[in-house]
Specification:
With about 475 residues, this protein is α/β, with parallel strands linked by helices. It is built from 14 helices and 14 strands. It has one domain: Glycosidases (TIM Barrel), CATH 3.20.20. Helix 6 packs parallel to helix 8. The protein starts with 8 loop residues before the first strand and ends in an 8-residue tail after the last helix. Bound molecules: 6-O-phosphono-beta-D-galactopyranose (BGP). 6-O-phosphono-beta-D-galactopyranose (BGP) binds next to loops. This is Family 1 glycosylhydrolase.
Length: about 475
């Protein structure tokens, strides 16, 4: 009873723009991520400008992947979540023909993973899209993006159909509400009308691509990916409970459309009351209704609170929330709430009755090397241990959980703030915020700990 299901997928999750570097190699086009050298937190940014930054090289996974995959294997991974950079395949997004060099690169990665018996789990779009689509089409504001995304998805499904059987459409699709440039290629000051219109196009694309995946690779599974931003009511005052319901609906809306195939009533009401009019083509709703993801995946780092009193809100890293007096915070101010993961798993399973996959969870922290040259990251071990124990509790509650890929099994560039010093890895990478460092890899204390957890299928967790 102390172990996870026998076919459980264990591994880690990375994203192309945060690990690969090689931002202009092999005819890769510039992506929206390449235009954000300081991360997605640029409040009220109205124009992006490219300057060189830490992501241009990142951790050079582009060249060092054999060594990294070897280290993942040593930890016992049977799964690696990674993303394809759309700009390696279609540098400008609207070409008729794909870039063969980009396709060949991911062939090498998938072959290397296969040689180590690690199953690739691929996100089609992880916080990046061709920047040319922003310049020439206004990003997802344009319906044309649906066709471009479909073409890109079709290309990679056809190319890798014998190599990749697990797919995700858009990373944290609900984040467009908070980071529209990163999510849908709109400027950060875009209004809700524009953002929801772009999201509608993305949801139609999601449905088309889910169906396409089922056609091209009948034995594959394709899921959605949500930022699991569960909110508790700040008090038992019914007004706070309703505030929490509204906060949660903001992100559940995406899962509802991707799973149930229709716009929920609460969203139609919101659009009506906010005077938001979504332009649709005749068969958009038919397309949306025709597709349902095979499983729900999500990231989980923190829970939030919601209050009917707007004064309670604090400005946070990306998402504003009401502080929870019962919880501690990470060095970046993210609330640490392992039990929230059990609550979220039960909640999502109950709502959707589909298998779930935790595709991101981990602790960003500043690591120190001691005089013996070791990194004793007990705080990371504690964080992951406690979250995995709660994930296991949810399995005992009856939740169907496919797997766990911890975020950043190897140090990488953080997404929100583009820092190397916000480290998540079991593997240390010698690279620093100023761009210095040898890029050498080193095992941290948590490396052996995670290896043990995987090897015992969770039995070694401290309960
Ligand atoms: C999620 C993203 C990841 C990742 C993670 C940690 O939102 O899907 O790409 O980076 O958060 O966030 P950060 O890197 O800002 O610490």
């Amino acid at each position: 009873m102390n172990t996870f299901p026998s076919d459980f997928l264990w591994g880690g999750a990375i994203a192309a723009n945060q690990v690969e570097g090689a931002f202009d190699y092999d005819k890769k086009g510039l992506s929206t991520s390449d235009m954000l050298p300081n991360g997605i937190l640029s409040p009220h940014q109205t124009r992006v400008e490219r300057t060189s930054g830490i992501k241009d090289v990142a951790i050079d996974f582009y060249h060092r992947y054999p060594e990294d995959i070897q280290l993942f294997k040593e930890m016992g991974f049977n799964c690696l979540r990674l993303s394809i950079a759309w700009t390696r395949i279609y540098p400008n997004g609207d070409e008729e023909e794909p870039n063969e060099a980009g396709l060949a690169y991911y062939d090498k990665i998938f072959d290397e993973l296969a040689a180590h018996n690690i199953q690739p789990f691929v996100t089609l779009s992880h916080y990046e899209m061709p920047y040319a689509l922003v310049e020439n089409y206004d990003g997802w504001a344009s319906r044309k993006l649906i066709g471009f995304f479909e073409r890109y998805a079709n290309t990679v499904f056809e190319r890798y159909k014998n190599k990749v059987k697990l797919w995700l459409t858009f990373n944290e699709i609900n984040m467009s509400l908070h980071a529209p440039f990163t999510g849908v290629g709109l400027q950060e000051d875009a209004n809700e009308q524009a953002i929801y219109q772009a999201i509608h196009h993305q949801l139609v694309a999601n449905a088309k691509v889910v169906n396409l995946c089922h056609q091209v690779i009948p034995d594959a599974k394709i899921g959605n990916m949500l930022l699991g931003a569960i909110n508790y009511p700040y008090t038992c005052n019914p007004d706070d409970v309703i505030a929490a319901m509204h906060e949660n609906n903001k992100w559940l809306f995406f899962g509802d459309v991707q799973t149930r195939g229709q716009y929920p009533g609460y969203m139609k009401r919101y659009f009506r009351e906010q005077n938001i009019h979504i332009e649709m083509k005749d068969d958009d709703l038919v397309v949306i209704a025709s597709a349902s993801v095979d499983f729900i995946s999500f990231s989980y780092y923190a829970s939030g609170c919601a209050s009917a009193d707007p004064k309670q809100k604090e400005v946070g890293n990306i998402v504003d929330s009401v502080p929870n007096p019962y919880l501690e915070k990470s060095q970046w101010g993210w609330l640490i709430d392992p039990k929230g993961l059990r609550i979220l798993l039960n909640f999502l399973h109950d709502r959707y009755q589909k298998p779930l996959f935790i595709v991101e969870n981990g602790l960003g922290a500043r690591d120190q090397t001691n005089s013996n040259g070791e990194i004793q990251d007990d705080y990371r071990i504690d964080y992951l241990n406690d979250h995995l124990v709660q994930a296991h509790e949810a399995v005992l509650d009856g939740v169907e959980l496919m797997g766990f890929t911890s975020w950043g099994p190897i140090d990488l560039v953080s997404n929100s703030t583009a820092e190397m010093s916000k480290r998540y890895g079991f593997i240390y990478v010698d690279r620093h915020d100023d761009g210095n460092g040898t890029l050498q890899r080193k095992r941290k204390k948590s490396f052996k700990w995670y290896q043990q957890v995987i090897c015992t299928n969770g039995a070694s967790l401290k309960r």
